[in-house]
Amino acid sequence: MGKVYEATVTAPVNIAVIKYWGKRDSALILPTNSSLSVTLSQDHLSTRTTIRASPDFTIDRLWLNGVEEDINASKRLVNSITTARKLREALEEKQKQDGIPAESVVPLSQWKIHVCSENNFPTAAGLASSASGYAALVSALGTLYELPQTTSELSRVARVGSGSACRSMFGGFVAWQAGIADDGHDSLAVQVADRQHWPELQALILVASDKKKAVSSTAGMQTTVETSSLFAERVRTVVPQRMEAMKEAIAKRDFETFAEITMRDSNQFHAVCLDTYPPISYMNDTSRAVAGLVHAFNSARGRTAAAYTYDAGPNAVIYALKSDMRDLVELFTYCFPREDSILPDAFYPDPFSIFDSPEQ
Ligand code: ADP
Ligand code: DP6
Ligand code: CO
């Protein structure tokens, strides 16, 4: 057995408060609109990925949650791995040009890899597994290959795996700038504020179903772009204005504005799904009951004290300030006693940490 190089990383999920839904280029995963999300603590939901590279490996292989997947059957896996390899190849070239003896430049770009990835939460159930999954894959490749690119630059590589993954490359509050270029070089994630900026903000995840969704995000958004007339209006007028208002609310730590925009954007995203033909319904009766309860809670408090948001699935993410969260947890546990709930009790200052262990 020859040399084996190895890297292990974990990556967090992110939950959008301004939703990405729609592609202008499906191959490069370029979105029709910018989006903005909050990265959750890795203590509760995360992907852990280990990658090994060796001159002895004959093919690239990947195991997801213990089951081997065919890498070549997934254009997204091939695209993200190939893009990272090209960056490594450029680095090896540079090392040689810089006078490092050729025999000291490790030709990792030429070696096949074995990837082992585990999600510690339901996969493909609307809890952003594609986001943490591809962010972990690309971070692990970045670590293994010792890539010099910035996190925003690497977010472009995560983006070609799954759009939402580019935002999981950062902790805190993250925008994915749609960009305008056809080659996608300006379609990347930037951090709007780090986690310490707003430590009182917390997220509660209510799992209404951990089943795999009937319509994947990729397929759903493609049908929406092709058939919904409401969607065009959302992209043209609503989202650009909400992006600005949301950034301002975050900068000012204005929870009421943050919460109202979050709920309105989730509602519009699901309205656009219903306007798709044939219609797509990701929310179920439990999701709708949770939304109703949040509005009732807000009325009782006389202020917008909590916000719900739903991705492409029935599971709710509730945002609230720490001072209101205990009451909300009690309320949800009382009203939905049989629901399985996961409570991230706090965000951490560094929600995205890398455990780097390349071995020779
Ligand atoms: P979700 O709401 O969970 O993001 P999607 O439909 O967007 O659901 O994506 C689910 C798909 O993402 C999975 O079927 C799988 O192809 C991919 N995926 C999920 N987790 C990982 C992972 N850890 N590594 C690689 N790909 C993953
Ligand atoms: C509703 O990133 O999963 O969660 O780019 O096709 O992989 P692909 O889709 P994905 O879509 C996420 C949609 C969403 C909203 C969001 O995360 O912004
Ligand atoms: Co996804």
Largest sheet: 5 strands, mixed
**What Rg do the Cα atoms give?**
21 Å
Question: What are the segments in which pLDDT stays under 50 over at least 5 consecutive residues?
Answer: 342-360
List the secondary-structure elements in sequence, H or E. Answer: EEEEEEEEHEHHEEEHHHHEEHE
Helix content: 25-40%
Strand content: 15-25%
Query: Which compounds are bound in this model?
Result: adenosine-5'-diphosphate, ligand DP6, cobalt (II) ion
The tally of beta strands, per DSSP, is 15
Mean pLDDT: 91
End-to-end Cα distance, whole Å, is 12 Å
Number of helices: 8
- Helical/strand content category: alpha+beta
Spatial strand arrangement across the major sheet: 1-6-9-7-8
Shape: globular
Protein name: Diphosphomevalonate decarboxylase
EC number: 4.1.1.33
Keywords: ATP-binding, Lipid biosynthesis, Lipid metabolism, Lyase, Nucleotide-binding, Steroid biosynthesis, Steroid metabolism, Sterol biosynthesis, Sterol metabolism
Organism: Coemansia erecta
